[in-house]
Prior knowledge:
By secondary structure, the chain is α/β, with parallel strands linked by helices. It has four domains: 4-56, no CATH class; 74-232, Substrate Binding Domain Of Dnak, Chain:A, Domain 2; 244-393, 3-Layer(aba) Sandwich (Rossmann fold), CATH 3.40.50.2030; 407-628, Rossmann fold (3-Layer(aba) Sandwich). The chain contains 24 helices and 16 strands. It has helices at residues 10-22, 27-34, 39-43, 74-106, 118-127, 137-153, 167-176, 183-193, 202-232, 261-271, 274-282, 294-304, 315-320, 337-343, 371-384, 409-420, 431-438, 460-471, 480-488, 502-511, 525-538, 558-569, 586-600, 610-628; strands spanning 46-47, 55-56, 238-242, 252-257, 288-293, 307-310, 326-329, 348-351, 362-363, 401-405, 444-448, 474-479, 516-520, 548-552, 573-576, 604-606. Helix 9 (202-232) packs across helix 21 (525-538). The longest helix is centred in the N-terminal third of the chain and has 33 residues, at 74-106. The radius of gyration is 24 Å and the shape is globular. The chain binds FE(4)-NI(1)-S(4) cluster and iron/sulfur cluster. Iron/sulfur cluster binds at residues 47-50, 52-55, 68-70, 72, 77, 196. The site of iron/sulfur cluster has 14 residues, from loops.
Amino acid sequence: xxxxxxxxxxxxxxxxxxxxxxxxxxxxxxxxxxxxxxxxxxxxxxxxxxxxxxxxxxxxxxxxxxxxxxxxxxxxxxxxxxxxxxxxxxxxxxxxxxxxxxxxxxxxxxxxxxxxxxxxxxxxxxxxxxxxxxxxxxxxxxxxxxxxxxxxxxxxxxxxxxxxxxxxxxxxxxxxxxxxxxxxxxxxxxxxxxxxxxxxxxxxxxxxxxxxxxxxxxxxxxxxxxxxxxxxxxxxxxxxxxxxxxxxxxxxxxxxxxxxxxxxxxxxxxxxxxxxxxxxxxxxxxxxxxxxxxxxxxxxxxxxxxxxxxxxxxxxxxxxxxxxxxxxxxxxxxxxxxxxxxxxxxxxxxxxxxxxxxxxxxxxxxxxxxxxxxxxxxxxxxxxxxxxxxxxxxxxxxxxxxxxxxxxxxxxxxxxxxxxxxxxxxxxxxxxxxxxxxxxxxxxxxxxxxxxxxxxxxxxxxxxxxxxxxxxxxxxxxxxxxxxxxxxxxxxxxxxxxxxxxxxxxxxxxxxxxxxxxxxxxxxxxxxxxxxxxxxxxxxxxxxxxxxxxxxxxxxxxxxxxxxxxxxxxxxxxxxxxxxxxxxxxxxxxxxxxxxxxxxxxxxxxxxxxxxxxxxxxxxxxxxxxxxxx
Length: 630
Ligand code: XCC
Ligand code: SF4
């Protein structure tokens, strides 16, 4: 049976047919079994914040319950549910960042974790006001790590990275009293405020959610990105390939799936270990083939060129190929379904994080103290499993596309610099980018980010929107699973310039970049905040003045909810291709899609049709240009 959501992606369709033949179940079967989703949940009007409930508000005014037992209105319930998603997303990104800071704290010259980029260490330490003069890099790294850990729980003060934003923006945050304090405090306070019998004013709940989301974007996520760069190196442009065709028939295939580079970096090292490679060969394989998925896939492709097996939607399909010796996961975006699925094949499903023990998986705790040793043990398990592969069950789609990845802010600036040869402080100048936008050669920029969601056809919204934007001379930067959709569609190549308008094509040719720039994982959206802040500051403008937008065509996670909220709170419009669960409150929906603009100069747009979404984005960008008189 053809699942409607799939039509767009023939690679996946083949494997879905195979799943049916193999008698295994996938997300598409579960989606069918789910039938119509709960209408109350869909609209956000179901509250179970206390045991007097669940309370659900009738969507028809004057008919059925209009208030929860405690008297909460639909507006309050929707606002509280929304806010709790933002808290969940902020917690996930930030707890990941905390782990990275802990790893930096234990980094040492002779240990598994080293400081790979001393220059960036110095730069961030100086930015944070540490005395760097004549200090041993590791002493400085430890001092910086301790400072970062305090960002999560310090009793006083606000997030240090807020000062990266243009001054006008900081002032807006100050006036609204939404400058985030300690990250954990914002998450905790928001959970408190949305407890039964606490805040009921939707306006104020939204503002608290905005403050919490800023603790993600300009706090946890930014720490996650910058500290990963210090430990594992600043990403640079490099070639790779993407889609399930990167799985190799004659090699030991290992899929890395999840988020934290502290695990994946060690697995990369282990997979290169000569003894383990030798073992793989002794067992009849041609070698070890490490491939990535979701954000951890982005982390390792940006720093090592590790090939991308696919995005969120394809995690089950990778196992269904029958050629996957092991799936190694840590945290976030991992289907619990993988446990049962991998038992139908020879695949070892290895979970590693005490924060994400998955029933039915093989649990090998990843202990940072013995990082490389554990990583080798995990890779060895995969190799030993090669002999259990059932050749009769193997089907590897031959589809894959070339891609260039690794455009950190540093790398983008270096590329721009080559063209203009500007004599100014090379790290700080985004002048060439500013010039082409102001000259109208580029109309603007869009960050296309986020997940897959079976509510829309796999990757179709991502690809349709991106193509439409580059055709209209809007340069696109991508992260997360959106980046992988773009990679699979061949949009991260120099050749993709043929799909662009004249202006963007010219820029791509002169600078030597693809029209769609891979900027990393989802915490790396902080790189986008950094980049646009540099552009705004160079022009003495606020972020809300710039012809730039954020787009999440197929988002699904709470993290995406936090991202959308901090993007808007930072003054950048966010276009969502999947409508969040807020429509049960016309008032709250209006606050998001209208009222926010007055407060923070940006708002949400909900548009599920990708063509219409692209049109609205272009219109909004032109509106901003007109206001700037450019
Ligand atoms: Fe997860 Fe980060 Fe979404 Fe992909 S894009 S499905 S959150 S892996 Ni971040
Ligand atoms: Fe119902 Fe109020 Fe309890 Fe929510 S908090 S479940 S609306 S009584």
